[in-house]
Amino acid sequence: xxxxxxxxxxxxxxxxxxxxxxxxxxxxxxxxxxxxxxxxxxxxxxxxxxxxxxxxxxxxxxxxxxxxxxxxxxxxxxxxxxxxxxxxxxxxxxxxxxxxxxxxxxxxxxxxxxxxxxxxxxxxxxxxxxxxxxxxxxxxxxxxxxxxxxxxxxxxxxxxxxxxxxxxxxxxxxxxxxxxxxxxxxxxxxxxxxxxxxxxxxxxxxxxxxxxxxxxxxxxxxxxxxxxxxxxxxxxxxxxxxxxxxxxxxx
Length: 251
Ligand code: PEP
Description:
The protein has 251 residues and is an alpha/beta fold.
């Protein structure tokens, strides 16, 4: 049984005060983690304060990115070891904005996946897809190549813990979500790819999320699909009341 995962990705938004207020506001309104896991990914500058104010809450405080080395002469980078020491449990890796604006390659993303796992955290690996690729008809092979590269060298035991998010770039921040059928098709493809790399048993344990303009309006139909185990929401996660509605999608 895969526990549904409802994640938010704030990107470079909100202030420190707003971040702490958000955590305080939602702490009594979330489902228990054994029924639905909830997570918010925020700026590394906010994480320590958020963790302090989150003591009684099931919310998983999550990082949006990290470097692939624990320490060294890497000015400005975020150490995965430091994140782990702070009590961060999940790290988003390979978001399409990191791939596009910061030139993150499949190789870099694979190194980050290993660094996160080596520090006993769980990577939320994002795979994107562009409209140009849909037009060319190679969007599915693009998704498969990203998944395959991201998990290269990851053991079966670790693979069972990871989370993968299918996030078509054309649906991110556009207000135009993929249809439920398109989202399921992408998530199914990712699970089949994982089954080919590992086994059906391992692929059945891995949570696959959909991300791209998820709101309280489309979450229920997305969550009814077989291969969609949760969502990663950007804009909708910036409002505490909206995030609470996403987290309580079963009600
Ligand atoms: C995202 O940034 O991962 C995302 C899915 O954003 P939005 O929900 O705003 O489309």
